[in-house]
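The protein record quoted in full:

***
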Amino acid sequence: MKSIILSGISVYDLQEAFSRYKGVVDTKVGYVNSDIQKPSLEELKSGKTGAALGVKITYNPNKIDICDILALYFKMLRPKDEKTREEQARDLKRSCIFYYSGEDVMQIEYYVKFMQNRGVQSIATTGEMLVNDTKREGPEPRYLYVNYVKAVNFIEAPEEEQNYLRKNPDAPREIDLDALAEDGFIAKL
């Protein structure tokens, strides 16, 4: 089994979507790359921990690979209004791919080049990609900065935060999971 951690979308939506994705065997909501061993929610919100909210996705590499996971991730990811590169990089809900091995980096960079060739992504530098908002109407494009960095630590969120949307089916959602299921990206409930 292999793992990757993703952030940048509501962790509840991310967890629910990937828990229904073929080849994924486990998902956990938590805090990634925290400078503090066991941060409180208040410490996380203060921005002083360096942590991001994320979902650790454990998958079977014989059934899917990182490129499959990234395809669904980028289908759900949306540019953040009026946030600069620096603001996005520090945000608790920043868009980031946290990897575990050098092999993962090669696959991430392969996917970045794939996106470049499709004209979706205009800039790719080591550790960062800039994704154009191709669906935006109007004169000013929006951009999404997605970093990819090594996962140093992952602290699981409390049990009440795990599988939150299944426990709270009426909770608001950022992503239309039903549409993803209708399009065949994830399994229907």
User: Anything to note?
Assistant: Confidence is low (pLDDT under 50) at residues 122-126. The chain has seven helices and eight strands. The two ends are 24 Å apart (CA to CA).
